[in-house]
Each structure stands twice: as C-alpha cells, then as structure tokens.
Amino acid sequence: MIAYLEGKIIKKEEDRIILLVNHVGYEILLPANVLETMGSRGDDETTSLYIYYHQTERQPKPTLIGFNLEAEKEFFQYFISVEAIGPMKAVKAMTLPAREIARAIENKDVITLQKLDGIGKRTAQKIIATLEGKMGKFALIHPGESIEKPVQLGDFTDMVLDVLVTQLGHRAPDARTMIAEAFERNPSIGTPEDLFDEVYRGEKNL
C-alpha cells in the first residue's frame, strides 16, 4: 500500500496532479484545499504528499488521494467514517481547510459545513453527530506547511509537541508557547488528550 510519495509535479488538472517519483508518474486526487497549495510551487520544487489509498471490490482500480500533512490524512479518515460520505464525496467536499472543518464540527456550526461542496443541512448535522468531540487535534492544524523537528521536553508533553510540529505544521517555538500557556491555564493537565483539549481551547479564544 502506498502511504507517502515525494517527487516533482509534471501535470496539474482540475482536481488532480501527476507526481513523478523515480521515473514513475502517479495520478493523485487532491481535495481543493490541498490543490490550492500546489499553485505556489515551482516546476523543479520537490513535492511530498501523504497518501490515502482507496481500492474496493466495487472499485478495483486504485485511487490515490494526497494531503500535505499526515494530520490532514487522518482527518480525512475520520470524515469518511460518517455515513453516506465516501472517499470520492469527501475529496469534493473538502473545499475548506481541514482545520476550519474541524472547528465547525466542534462548534456545531451547521452553516459553515453546508458551504462544503455537496453537503446539505441533513448531512452537516450527521457529520456533527458523528465527529463532535473528536476534532480538537485537527482544529489545531497550522494554516501553513512548515515542518520543524521539535526540541524534546519531558514526560508526555514531548509527544504533544511532536504532534503539533511534525503532524499539525506549527513551528517548534510556537508549539512550546501553546503548551506552556495551556499549563498556565490548567496546571492539573495529566494526559496528552487533556493537553490537546486545553491547547485547542486557548487557540479557539484567540
């Protein structure tokens, strides 16, 4: 199974690219919010994508769906767990960044979810009912794509720092500040899940 590809874009289409990797061209579907990030890249610039590999008995031809961040791919897997939202529908629906969709779900914002391509009020309500309470981590995805290696902290905070930086795209100094401020607001944090929730609450109130 293909989980990650790195190469050069040799063709861009409306909803997909062809990525040249070791002399092999891979056709990769991209959600609109991911495709937008491809426009600023030069022809010789290396592009790396996390890949969701989709193949079923009904659809034996493999389909590759690409994401800039591992967290975006993970969010997509949650998104397609909602009844009546399959991978193809999800690709078309993700016209907003995963961060914004996750925040809309946590805020029970049906109006924002209805802005997604192909998502009506009933489906938006179903998305919220299925995913509310599971989106805090994805609501913290940084708008940019920069990836830095974190400086290690201690105990479970180093794991949270690593996720904020390597998966969610925050700069290491910013992530450390977010964690420190979370502990200032709530010194009783005792698990990674509690820390993610408190960091999200802090970002939500900005």
- Give average pLDDT, whole number: 87
- Gross morphology: globular
**Sheet with most strands: strand arrangement:** 1-2-3-5-4
How many separate domains? Answer: 3
Under CATH, the topology of the largest domain can be stated as DNA polymerase, domain 1
Description:
The chain is α+β, with helices and mostly antiparallel strands and 206 residues long. It folds into 3 domains: 4-67, Nucleic acid-binding proteins (OB fold (Dihydrolipoamide Acetyltransferase, E2P), Beta Barrel); 70-137, Orthogonal Bundle (DNA polymerase, domain 1), CATH 1.10.150; 146-204, no CATH class. The protein has 9 helices and 5 strands. The protein has helices at 32-35, 70-79, 87-93, 98-106, 110-113, 121-131, 157-167, 172-185, 192-204; strands at residues 4-12, 16-21, 24-29, 46-54, 63-67. Strands 1-2-3-5-4 form a 5-stranded mixed β-barrel. Helix 7 crosses helix 8 (172-185) and helix 8 (172-185) packs across helix 9.
List the main descriptive attributes of the protein structure presented here.
single chain, 206 residues, alpha+beta, OB fold (Dihydrolipoamide Acetyltransferase, E2P), 5-stranded mixed barrel
